[in-house]
Amino acid sequence: MEPSPLDRLYTPLDPSRKEIRLLRILSTGPCLTCTLQVASLTQDLYYHALSYVWGDPAAEHEILVNETAIKIAGNLYHALHDISSGQRYLWVDALCINQRDIPEKNTQIPLMADIYRDAALVLSWLGPRSE
């Protein structure tokens, strides 16, 4: 598989430490700007988990994560804008798991029950507000 900008975004996780990545929204200005950082479920973490409707994958928006431009689905983009008040740490499956790394996905997916259970708050986002 050809290298992607995403490859430099994702540092390896240590499954023995139950490591995950957490997203932090820094700015929703002209460009949604975020950071990803590694954390361990074995530590006392404070984060929110986001559950959302994936929606149309063709409706993409570009964001910056750790100064790397990536494209995300429109529904996730709008969800991040809607919930971005405060600089909270978020766990979002599409961004916090390297979707191109099958071995990583195979270790992260079984952790999802722990991730959602240990979250301080689980946010459900069904779509944009009706006008």
From TrEMBL:
InterPro entries: HET, HetReg/Transcr_Mod
Occurrences of domain Heterokaryon incompatibility (ranges): 47-130
Any Pfam family matching the protein: HET
Residue ranges crossing the lipid bilayer per the database entry: none
The protein's name in its UniProt record: Heterokaryon incompatibility domain-containing protein
